[in-house]
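Reading group handout, session on sequence-to-structure problems. Before we discuss, look at one worked example. The prompt was deliberately terse, the way you'd type it at a terminal:

> structure SLC22A4_5

The input record follows.
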Amino acid sequence: MNYDKLLMKIGGFGRFQKRMLALLMIPPFLDPMTSYMLTFILGDHKHRCQMPNTMGDPFNSTLNMAANISECFVYQNGSTTACNEWVYDQSQYKSTLISTFDMVCDNKFVRSHTMLCHYIGIFCGAFTYGMFSDTFQKESPRWLIAKRKLSRAEMILKDIAKENNANFDIDIQKIKVDETQERVAFCTAVGELFKFSISMTYFGITMKVGNLGGDVYVNYLISTSAEVIALFICLYVVERLGRKKIFSASMLICGIGCLCTIFSSLYGGPSLHWLTITLAMIGKLTITVAYFNIYLMVAENFPTNLRSFAIGICSSSGYAGSMVSAYVGDLGVLVDTKFGVALPLVIFGAFGICAGLLSFALPETKNMPLPQSIQEAENISRKQYKDGGSVLLGRQPVLTTALIGMMLPNLIRSFVSSLPLVGFLIFANGYFSMLVYDTGYILATELVDSSKRVFANFAYYFSFCIGEYVLVILAYFIRDWRILGWSTSIVVGIFLTSLLFQKESARWLIAKGKLSRAEMILKDIAKENNANFDIDIQKIKVDEKHEKVAFCTVVGELFKSKILTFRLAIFMFNWFSISMTYFGITMKVGNLGGDVYVNYLISTSAEVIALFICLYVVERLGRKKIFSSSMLICGTGCLCTIFSSLYGVPSLHWLTITLAMIGKLTITVAYFNIYLMVAENFPTNLRSFALGIGSSAGYAGSMVSAYVGDLVNICY
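And the output record:
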């Protein structure tokens, strides 16, 4: 008997799972309050040179207007010279890191470097999680079974059955674990590529939403709303259509939407600015759907022993994409034409379309149990599963430590005046925020049975969007970056106490051989779910050889498999693209023009829409179709901003924002799916590794997004 069948017997989604899932929604709710705050404290702060030999120089002084003073140069003594003092407009922001450290003119790329610190921290966190989580995590029954830690696994399963009011009369000795060490690397490579594409697009649209024009707050509000919409889409679609279909569709739509901003930007003019924003928000919505799916896909494509590593690697790739997105988002600054607004979205769109097309090579993991061995991961398309486990690093202590680590740098940063120290604290915040999100996600994924996996993913991501809504509200009323830092840190500190009620993962405990502890948890689960747990887990003998398998040996298993290696390469590229786009749009939402708060709100709403799309479509159409289409749509939407930026009149600025939000929505769908796809494409002993690698690729994409998003400053 595999673990999923055992979980269904004691309650796959009973009262226990619902209660734990509610608690697990708190960490992602807190995550954006500190990490995405950079959207506002590093926002485009309007400035001009201060007049020489003057005091109390107001920004909108009529005297200054008559003196022909620009942002970076001042006319003095018959010549034009670069200024070294500036006056900042306080109508939108009262105080930001830009105004505090004068990140303008020749120092304008210091902003990108500062944001890069955040993405590097996320990248390191993803890589660290993927490397060590499978070694220290102590709570998943699935992983414990894979590692033959049966006594502890039995205790956890009994707790699950007990809390879910289910009977547990299964002989755990009959639960078979396939430890075949065959080729496993295709999905990991694919996940890296996916995560990079998704992250680059997602963060490229989100973090540079102000570049779309219009009110940066409105743009951000729309962007956030697009995420919310994406989440609901995922909620009702992913389980119906499958991961692959939703992921592919979201990436394609995101790409197409971003590409379409070309027309609204080039030919639309100001009157069609709304179209550019709309296309960008479509990209945001669809990339959110992709984001939703990619975690599922990575988790479902890799075995237990490699799942954390795969998620970590793919996340790293994704945040590499997010790093790229910061600079891609600012490419518009380099091009002093209408095309400048659309240029970053065009790049996001191109990556989205490539990732969407590449996702067709992945298997569909809808309704498939998480693979436990490499052989099971390779046989996903033939449904030859025997199931498997979880991840490695103790999630509960890691989650607690990560939340504290996320809060403290954010709080300390508000009191320092040294830019290098600020950069280090931003790095630390990014590092721990990644640990918070990925650790909580693995817990949520392994908490429920396969039929509720998409819903758990939806609930987890949806709480993240709620956190974004809270952030934009706080940022709107608190325009000083230091006070905003204090406020968000206080919110995180208040919710830290919720971790006292969070239980360890029985699935992982079984895989680690911590059978006594696993049995206790499983009994609690069975009791709360009104189920019986009458299995003597102590009779299970633990094979210590499984526990002594070195990390390098596990990684070696992955790359012995050409199929899984190829999958991993595709996932890494997509994750990189997703992260670059997602963070590029999210963190640079102010670049879209208009009110940054409205832009962020729209961006978050696009994510919510994407989540609901994933919820109702992924299971119906499959992971692959949704993922591929979302990446392609995101890429197309971002690319289309070329036209709205170059040819659109100011009245068409909305079109650029719309295209960006389409990219945000679809990249969110891709984000939703890629986790699922990676998790479902790799066996138990490789699942964590695959997720770690893919996640790392994604965060590499987020690093790139920091500079991509600032390309607008070069084009300006």
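Points for discussion. First: The beta strands are 47-49, 73-76, 79-82, 86-88, 165-166, 271-273, 292-294, 530-531, 640-641, 651-653. Second: The radius of gyration is 24 Å.
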